[in-house]
Design goal:
Helix content is about 40%, strand content about 20%. By secondary structure, it is α/β, with parallel strands linked by helices. The strands form 3 sheets. Strands 2-4-1-5-6-7 form a 6-stranded mixed β-sheet, with helices on both faces. Helix 7 links the parallel strand 6 and strand 7. Helix 4 runs antiparallel to helix 5. It is flat.
Amino acid sequence: MYRAGIVGLPNVGKSTLFNALIKNHQAEANNYPFCTIEPNIGIVNLPDIRLLKLADLVKTEKIVPAAFEFVDIAGLVKGASKGEGLGNQFLSHIREVDAIVHVVRCFNDPNIIHVEETVNPIRDIETIKLELALSDLQSIERRIDNTERKAKSNDPASKNELRILEIIQKTLNEGKLLTTLKFENEDLKFYKSLFLLSDKPVIYAANVLEGEIQSLKNNKLVEFVKNYAKETNAKCVPICATLESELIALTQEERKTFLSSGNSNESPYTGVDDLIKATFDLLGLSTFFTAGQKEARAWTILKSTKAPQAAGVIHTDFEKGFIKAEVIKYNDLVKLGSKVLVREAGLARLEGKEYTVQDSDVIEFKFNV
């Protein structure tokens, strides 16, 4: 299962946000640094109104949404790459995730300790980025030492690996982003095998106080993070982790009523939903549907996945014996009201092994084992 890690400095709201994401008070959230030691792990469902509509169309009560994991990782501090604050242990936890949700404190509250004593979101972001880059640099330098010895024996593979490692080392030493590097084929495969921390895709969760969520334009700290994210081709999602965590105990209807009462817009504030969707996209994931009387289900795949591999997500036998995929577009199904009517209108298509599954495709696989 794909996994996103929640990172940030201590006391920025990571564990509170984690609890809101998984709708459970699983993670301890206290006002002191390192109240989280071992990472908390929870499965999060992707909010998707399309799935509810499909379930209504096929008359099934069983709904299975797409899902992925969130990991609440303890706070990093300046010097983490040198072991400060149990840094090496926490950095290893980040290495195991596919993407990073960087929680940034965008509120002033004298009752909540800040490890740097003052609130400065851009400084905090740069602190985390620097520690990730320094950790990568140490890892690369150790790898270079080992690879140089092999390269001296005229081993072609080692020579090529050394070339790539030195490119990465130079980029990190110059303070440049690893995302600027372009590798292809076997070089790319080797680069990905290094699992570099500062190469992981990142999204910024700008955490604000409950009274500020309806007036974000007045929060200069959020604007700083939004601009920073834009400059680095990242996304920023403003959120009030405390508010979202408090809503856990409410029913869906109570939650809707509560949020709408303080919101002049037709759609109530859904910061957690926005963050989940943005993280799902950040992970490079996509969704296709199967819908029948037994259940309506969303399946998680990587974008650009071919039909046989998408079938294999359901069952390995589906991929092995793949013949064709009957593909119906979600919008056509909702518009016409049933698969039968879509077929009669000539809008259902049979696709082969080279078909790239599109987000929201409704699919029935034909296979033979």
